[in-house]
Amino acid sequence: MRFSVLALALTVFAGMAVGQSEADFKAAMVTTMPKDIKWVEGANGAATAVLAGDPSKPGIYVVLNKWHPGHMSRPHFHPNDRFIYVISGTWWVGAGKKYAPETTKPMGPGSYVLHTGKGIHYDGAKDGEAIIEIVGIGPATATPAEEK
């Protein structure tokens, strides 16, 4: 009996040690380490990294936005809903045609925001950097909507 239990334990541990093959792993998923994410600086005070899809084309996309301190967008809207998760920092959000950054609401790490299609909003970072993940359906155009 002891021998059977020992043999079974060794078989289980040997199977765990073998684990997955590299080919199985690569066939099942694609991974990207933070150091390998390709950030592109934009003109609006934010860097963007496309993780999946193409925001300029029809279909689903996933992007990261890294808002630099002291930068905010002006009132604008997008044609489709956008689903946004705050990864780090504080992302400040506001709504309406009048640009009033002092009235924006802070969204900390773990917060979720739904930008409704054609809903006029503005957002960005104040004192520190904020990184957000955006999932949406393209094309992800931004139409200015500020009332002066």
Describe the protein in words:
- By secondary structure, the protein is an alpha+beta fold.
- The protein has a single domain (28-144), classed as Jelly Rolls (Sandwich), CATH 2.60.120.
- Helices cover 16% and strands 36% of the residues.
- The protein has two helices and eleven strands; from the N terminus they run ααβββββββββββ.
- The protein has helices at 2-18, 22-28; strands at residues 40-41, 46-52, 59-67, 76-77, 82-88, 91-95, 105-107, 112-115, 121-124, 130-138, 143-144.
- The strands form three sheets. Strands 1-2-3-10-5-8 form a six-stranded antiparallel sheet, with no helix packed on it. The chain has a three-stranded antiparallel sheet with strand order 7-6-9, with no helix packed on it.
- A hairpin with a 6-residue loop joins β2 and β3 (59-67).
- The chain is elongated and about 80 Å long.
